[in-house]
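Q: I'm teaching a short session on how sequence maps to structure, and I want students to see two examples side by side rather than one. Could you give me a first protein with its sequence written out and its structure tokens following it? Keep the formatting plain so it prints cleanly on a handout.
A: Of course. Example one:
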Amino acid sequence: MHSGKERRPSPEALLERADREARGKLKIFLGAAPGVGKTYEMLLSARAMQADGVDVVVGVIETHGRPETEALIQGLEIVPRRSTDYKGQVLDEMDLDALIERRPALALVDELAHTNAPGSRHPKRYLDALELLAQGIDVYTTLNIQHVESLNDVVAQITRIRVKETVPDSVIDRADDIEIVDITPQDLIRRLQDGKVYVPRTAQRAIENYFSAGNLTALRELALRRTAQRVDEQLLNHMQAHAISGPWAAGERILVCLDHGRNGAALVRYARRQADRLRAPWAALHLEAASAANLPEKDKDRLAACMRLAEQLGADTVTLPASSIAREIIAYANANNFNHLIIGKSNKPRWREVWEGSITHDLIRHSGTISIHVMSGGEEEIVSPGVRSATPRKRPGFKHYIASTVFMSLAVAIGALLDRTLDVRNLALVFLMGVMASAVKGGLGPGLYASLFGAVTFSFFFLEPRYTLSVRDPESVIALLFFLGTALIASNLTAAVQRQATAARQRARTAEDLYLFSKKLAGTGTLDDVLWATAYQIASMLKLRVVILLQEDGTLSVRAGYPPDDTLVDADIAAAKWAWEHNRPAGRAADTLPGAKRLYLPLRTGRGAIGVVGLDNDKQGPLLTPEQQRLFDALSDQAALAIERIHLVADVDNAKLAAETDRLRTALLTSISHDLKTPLAGILGSAGTLKDFWGKLSETSREDLLSTVIEESERLNRFIGNLLDMTRIGAGALEPNYALHYLGDIVGSALARATKITGAHKIEVAITPDLPMLRIDPVLFEQAVFNLLDNAAKYSPEGSRIEIRGWADDTGIVLRILDEGPGIPPGDAERIFDSFYRVRKIDYVTAGTGLGLSICRGFIEAMGGRILAENRPDRPGAMFTITLPKTNSPQGNPE
């Protein structure tokens, strides 16, 4: 029966296999660095597939001008690339839709980590490859090891260059085949020097920096190890899918077996050292026998600490129920392809090993090809947690003994009723039922009591001579002894089953609570929600009062509590601070500062303490039983990870903000250097000419130069005004000065200001005369309209029309400005409102600052309105629509 279970294929492996068969096959040609020949090798493999009759199509191949690579493309069908216009440049990308419509058997997709041009369906090329696979198309692709996401930091440490284009490890894990394309560092450097990878100047710079011999050797090792890791996973999946009993010693895998013994920590550390030496994955296994429920709390604590230590050192931890320890260990090792097994030396006396058997001897006897490492480990103990444990409350057992007495009395009564019809030996079964009922209800003690009580009453009432404790018939003596033995065994087994059932129910409740807690934490997005959920969960499961403290501005402060409480006396503050600084418990029932009201325990991750939890109740003495301490460890570990996740998200947001600030600063400096310098150059040139050649200039020339000075001064004034407006918007200091105004008046004032800018265009104004009054800031709104007119004039050819339309509808008062320029590029309808963003310019477009439309949006939204940019539906051109809320005011022109 057991062996049949071992030979059963793994459902997970079968599901993964079915998923792979339902989609296309992915093959990755992996290299340590550019220039090793990945594309060349991929094309050779593709041509071999084509020679075998496979329909091969090139989706995208980057030849980089290498003649030998271009020669291999000859004879292969190529899907034309799709052209994308981006910032004045034409970018060619793989035409995903055309490739899917063509539906070849095999598609070649070079440079998997490539970033697609804006406006493409997917931002990354690996997403294009995944869509092809989902369509059932096989894909050949290339990838360098520095583009693997999990190795990004390692590669940056080696090369001092951080690669921005990365591919998630999940894509590598989905690969059906990975082929290493490898050459020695010396050969690659020679290829660089010969100009076969980069042009000579770039190649020399690359050799001096990225392509050093040491860097290339380290990258080769990374590529080989990442490939070996994937191959090891494929081997394990194959064995599980085909129910192959391992291990296959294709790679090293280490399994350490832990129990409650004193050498557990030494075993874990030895396993980690072995894993480092062999560079192998490792796991920690604990098999829970039926007797585990009877272990002393100290042994349970030791085992829990060892499993946590294994997790902290990077092991996968597994706990499984088992009846035969040795056989289950061998079965698990074979099923998961572990070929090194580490166990601790047994400290049992020889007579116990003879009586109970030796797990070590059984493992060695059934190990097969698995290497067994037996460690003595000495008398090592896990470091004490530094907190005195509360004694678990034991419920009084008198009622169970009373219940046992009732059960056995009922057995006597039933036996008396059946005495006339049943033989005395059959009456013993009635008493056995009473014994089992007592063991189920009360456990081992009441069950043993019922056995003895039943033996006495059975002898007294039903064995001859009756109503005495003497037994005359030898057969009756034997029957009584067998009854007593059977009753003792039955009560023991029944009590053991009852203990296991109780423990299983308790574990199920705890596991469900922990699962719901982790699910709740996963759905929280703010730190306050995480802290409140943590405080509530700890308080409800441990029946204690809880406060959570985090560091703010260099000091610890209460951030959450259940029930809500933020008062701490001096002793509690000192204990919390000590627990935070030393990453150890402090306060009530702890070794340090035990006079505090609360017990303070650190919230910690692998990087150290991130907070402190305070616990207390109204009773005296220690707070947590050993079982509660283990439960608190599980809750606090989940909470600490959730808090760290929130902090990491905040760090990422701050990094993005810093990057955006740096981008805006760079754009601002660029804009200032250009937009200040250009009008100043015009002013200085005109003023200098007037000063030096005033008498030689005609009246018309002098007027033209003076006009230039005035126009450039106005342009400079507008630029400075825009900068000041953006400063006000960014600082949140923009407070509109509201008043009731008619829309037509504001538009007319803006047109008057923009006369010089719009002089070469035809202006058409169509505003409904009976519009209601608007509650707006006239200065801000006029500036917004002026900026829109300025934008329309810049991007429209001379002689074209600029239309201004105004009306009222259910959404509010609408003002729309339309031009006849080239329109808004695809994907830029929102980006044009970003500060310093400028779309691609046409020849007739005057350079701008990239601030005008951003100011428009800031002003309009400050007044409670909204602005939308889109292309005209009837002809080329842009269309800007401003919508403002209506006010309860008289209609019509106020004049």
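Q: Perfect. Now a second example for contrast.
A: Example two:
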Amino acid sequence: MTSEEPQQPLFVPKVNPVNIEEEMKSSYIDYAMSVIIGRAIPDVRDGLKPVHRRSLFAMWEMGNTHDKAYKKSARVVGDVMGKYHPHGDASIYDTIVKMAQPFSYRMMLVDGQGNFGSVDGDAPAAMRYTEVRLKREAEELLVDLEKETVEFVPNFDESLEEPSVLPAKLPNLLINGSDGIAVGIATKMPPHNLGEVCNAVCHYLNHPEATVYELMQILPGPDFPTGGIIMGTEGIQNAYLSGQGKLTVRGVAEIDESGKRDQIIITEIPYQVNKAKLIEHIAELVKEKRIEGISDLRDESDKDGMRIVIDLRKDARPQLILNHLYKHTALESTFGIINYAIVDRQPKILGLIALIEQFVRHRITVITRRSEFDKRKAEERVHILRGLLHAIDNIDAVIATIRAAQTADEAKEALIAKFSLDEAQAGAILQMQLRRLAALEKQKLVDEREQLEAEIRKLLELLSSEANIRAEISRELHELSDKYADKRRTQITGDLQEIVREDLIPNKQVLVCLTHQNYVKHMDVDAYRVQGRGGRGVMGISIKDGDYVEQAFVANTHDHLLCFTSTGRAYWLRVFDIPEGSRQSKGKAIVNLLDLRNEERVTAVIPVQEFSSDRFFLFLTERGMIIKIPQDEFARPRSTGVNAITLREGDNLVYVMVSDGSQEIIITTKYGQSLRFHEEQIPLRHRNALGVIGMRMKDDDIVTSMTVIEDGKHLLTITSSGYGKRTNFDEYRGHGRGTMGVRNIKLKRNDGIVTAFSAGAEEEIILMSAEGIVIRTSVDKISIQGRSTQGVRIMKLTAGDRVVGVTSLSPEEQKEISDDIPQAEIVDEGPDENGFSEE
């Protein structure tokens, strides 16, 4: 080779082209499966992740059991990290800490001494300060490891071996649950009561065909270490059937009314809720005035249990505040269940029966291998005992044979050849002590052989059928249940009591006001002072230019409002959906609360507590058409509304009234005519039907009101000028439906009737003027007069103002009634100007 020739490389690399997508896919899948199998998802057989299994095994291996002294956590962590889990000490210590926390594990696996954190989220002390040892329950997961019950695999550096799974006499995955996040999947399994789980597994062993619903009679649902209340069973059933479900869990709170002021006392909180953050959140809600009525909040928890005390103000409603706490804080939380577990090295979602079945299969394998191990060891010992007993029976020849040999190996060979022994028996004879030659010692060997032979027969019977093994599993579980079971901590209610907006709003009486231009609001009835007849009142509502109050009535905040429009349509609205306003506020446009059509306006609003088939709505139009429709035809709310009645062209719906179908009614027009007839004359129709003629009237007259005749009451008529009177119903003769009726009241020029309704002497009325002035006065101060009289002045109005709305208050609705009410002054100011006759 000359210097000019290029040198050939000693090694020529081989390059294989690889598709980058395939390589990324393959590598990512390998990484994902490594995380799923090796880190985040528990094994279905023992319910443990690798870090939990390695921690428990290391403590077991170093003799750190419940009957020995505690060992420093740092020593345990170092042992686990150095031998089996080289992923950092933080993850190992966090795992050990969690297994020692009574609020994290339903069945604690580690007995800790020192500060291991708290339900307030306090961090545990450093590992150099705390000490640990195994709990007795944890040892039940590790027992029989030495009997070749499970496979051992090399550790990370192949210097040691560790178990791939623990024997697990207890169904740990169901008892303690698990949670973890892997690549693409997550698991979150709830804990259960040990006794209930063991009983459910035993029932399955005896009845393999058992259904989830049968098992739920024994295992009704999760049992969280922090207690609480599971609301409803639907989520539990879904989780047990499919492996996925959602639970609503509430803390346990009671209302204490024994002291000077009411208190809400919280003694249990939902699982995995931080108590300190819960209290902090409640305080923030109180500060932001999102929850009102709380005067003090303190944590009185101690070693005896949890106790959060919430002091309430005198005027507070305890149940309402508790509902707000459930709605807005973690006192009511959702626990989402997804039962991912590793089955045959693959992640699967498992229902209750599959979880129990996998545990049973694992225990069948463990007990089979344990029994085979015990049988083999017993058979080996029996074989040795037979050799020893044979030697004792021929002791002189055995001694002579041994003495004749030059070495131990020669002696062993001679014994094997002369007495038909094998090497193990011959070795045992050579090691036998001379004291074994005593008669009593020989009997001990005989007894031991018989005992072992009986044990072998028992093991053979156990291994003869799977049914025997399943019975053994059941026996062990009953023993463990008797030994470790405790009372259930979490309550389960039959139905989910969902906190809806209605539960967060007090059910009280309010005054609802609707203006002519369809602005609406509600106000507290007690905002108006009781005044005598003729008083000026207080400002009731702030109005826009040209607007005035058209309707005002009392309703409960939980009532439904049926809003009927001028076009004959009906819409649903809850009273609490109407914004609350002050006396001076104008309210909110109702078009923002209802899905009204163009040119449609609300003309009648009826509060309804329930929709009944034996009660009816009576609809009256501006031109005197009337129709009767059952209430239950409006029982299904629709956001877009429905057609209530059909109207003739040019007519408008003006009045709607509730009736029981057996009443006499009086219709009154603006210019003072009233018609009395029985509602049986009104045909019953379905929704969206056309009405019949209820009252005939002159072309320029319109209907203003309709009322039911009630015994012991009078017809109270109010005019737009603020005058009114009470008249006996007997003065209105029945003329039959479709007639013009009789005169009701003597009107002044440009005056008209606002309303006429049945009123008792014990009631009160609220009058509202177009300028928004409101007055509240007693009915018994208004004079009883004949049909042809003008009445008395009830409300003093300013020039240009007029009465536009009237509502009545029953005795139950009246509060703080004033006794100082002046007597009415009856004023007669001349004849009617509208030309109507007496008839």
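Q: What should students look for in example two?
A: Point them to this: Residues 529-543, 815-827, 830-839 have pLDDT under 50 and may be disordered. Also worth mentioning: The longest strand covers residues 549-556.
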